[in-house]
Amino acid sequence: MQHKTRGIVLHNSAYSDIYSITLIYTEEFGMTSYLRAKPKSRKTRTPQSLFHALSVLDLDVEHRNLRDIQRIKEAKVHIPLVSLLIDPVKSAICIFLAELISKTVRETQPNKSLFDFLLQSVQVLELTDKSCANFHLVFMVILSRFLGFYPDDSDYKEGTFFDMQNGVFVNSQPLHPRFLNPGDSRFFYNLLRIKYENMTAFKLTGIERKAIITAILEYYRLHLTHFPGIKSLEVLHEVFG
Q1: Of all residues in the chain, what percent carry a pLDDT higher than 90?
Q2: Which of 32, 44, 112 lies closest to 76, judged by CA?
Q3: 203 with 103, same domain?
Q4: Enclosing domain of residue 119
Q5: 3-state SS of 41-109?
Q6: pLDDT per residue over 30-56, tens digit each?
Q7: What number is the average pLDDT over the span 114-126?
Q8: Are the CB atoms for 37 and 54 separated by under 8 Å?
Q9: Are 137 and 212 spatial neighbours (Cβ–Cβ below 8 Å)?
Q10: How far is CA 9 from CA 13, 53, 144, 181, in A?
Q11: Domain shared by 138 and 235, yes or no
Q12: Is the model more confident about 41 or about 113?
């Protein structure tokens, strides 16, 4: 059947000399892989230039229940993205977040709240003219809420440990090694207060930011089955020093 949906592009891979496969988080179908014909002329209805990391598209698609890979018939720009393509920092963030989403979100059913969050995030990143050095940190924390393991900070107080395995703050050091010390726990607690609106207020060195990303990814790894490494992480580290 033919359908129309908005979608956010996450990953492209070669399939054959004629087709490629694009992974897209769609508003109507959740996470979906699409077979897309490689362009033979400038008049193609699915131009390659549209399918970059986190591009937001209006799609005409064909869905059949027994198919693992669906088909894209036509794609058009839903939101014009300029700064995400020309700003090297924003581009690196896009590549990292697209890979993170593709490796963590498994839903093949529509989730409007998640789609709206992803769409809003793309819009904020595109439009911001302030530093976006903390953008991906905010994104990762909020995404954990949709994935079902947002930290419980109700028992936090100065001197507590963050038990990453159980996602809670505790008074004494856990018996297992998967925890943050009180200093890092205080910082992690403060991280839960960051929003897109105030992300520039948190000043971090490159070393601090790298340590935080490592801790958050470890937290993800503890709560997700089969969470592979993020290949684009090194590029992100290079951008932020």
Answers
A1: 73
A2: 44
A3: yes
A4: 83-151+192-240
A5: CCCCCCCHHHCCCCCEEEEEEECCCCCCEEEEEEEEECCCCCHHHHCHHHHHHHHHHHHHHHHHCCCCC
A6: 999 999 887 665 667 778 889 999 999
A7: 98
A8: no
A9: yes
A10: 12, 6, 20, 38
A11: yes
A12: 113
- The burial class, CB within 10 Å (0-12 / 13-18 / 19+), for 229 is exposed
| 121 and 231 housed in the same domain | yes
List, in order, residues 6 or more apart from 120 with CB less than 8 Å away. none
Q: Which CATH number does the domain housing residue 47 bear?
A: 2.40.50.140
26, 51, 77: which is the final residue of a domain?
Answer: 77
Residue 187, domain member (yes or no) = no
Check whether residue 24 and residue 61 sit in a common domain: yes
CATH of the domain at 130: 1.20.1440
Average per-residue pLDDT for the chain: 92
Structurally, the chain folds into a number of domains equal to 2
**Cα–Cα distance measured from residue 213 to residue 216, given in angstroms and rounded to the nearest whole number:** 5
Q: In the chain, what is the straight-line distance between the N-terminal and C-terminal CA atoms, in Å?
A: 48
Token pair recorded at residue 113: 């709240």
pLDDT, tens only, 162-217: 999 999 999 999 999 999 999 989 989 988 988 999 999 888 888 888 888 999 99
With beta carbons less than 8 A apart as the criterion, state whether 27 and 55 touch.
no
